[in-house]
């Protein structure tokens, strides 16, 4: 029997794993949250559930602090090296000020979202949102942590950028 004929015969066998649906609704197909091999895999679930937004056991302020630190840290570089005054001695200060400005604007956006009385987040196949985001109070705590973490992350990046020459000399790079 030819290989292709064996494949053709397995098309009618419901116990063959190749005939099962790969994408299926986990609960209600009307919701539109489909289980795929990617979003329902253990690897994807563990990665997403270990992000600070979904990690269990931490407060809303700590979540905001972690997210703010990361965003404040990575915003300084593009603002410092891609601004219109990048060829002056003020480029690092402009990067710091721009990053802090962006963090403040983002914090205001989070506070506006909290004031709008947002709906409760829905649990998905991949992640279960924490209870802190079920109320405006949790979102306000998150925004406070985001502001503090964002400014601290921007300050850390600024110190590292301004002292880059010292690090190069220290490690003979």
Automatic annotation (TrEMBL):
GO biological process: photosynthesis
Pfam families: PsaL
Record SUPFAM superfamilies: Photosystem I reaction center subunit XI, PsaL
Entry GO CC: photosystem I reaction center
TM annotation in the entry: 93-115, 142-161
Region (Disordered): 1-26
Membrane protein topology class: Multi-pass membrane protein
Basic and acidic residues bias spans: 1-23
UniProt keyword list: Membrane, Photosynthesis, Photosystem I, Transmembrane, Transmembrane helix
InterPro entries documented for this protein: PSI_PsaL, PSI_PsaL_sf, PSI_suXI
Superkingdom as given in the UniProt entry: Bacteria
Residue ranges constituting the Photosystem I PsaL reaction centre subunit XI domain according to the UniProt record: 23-164
Subcellular location: Membrane
Family assignment from sequence similarity: Belongs to the PsaL family.
Protein's name in the database: Photosystem I reaction center subunit XI
Organismal lineage: Bacteria, Bacillati, Cyanobacteriota, Cyanophyceae, Oculatellales
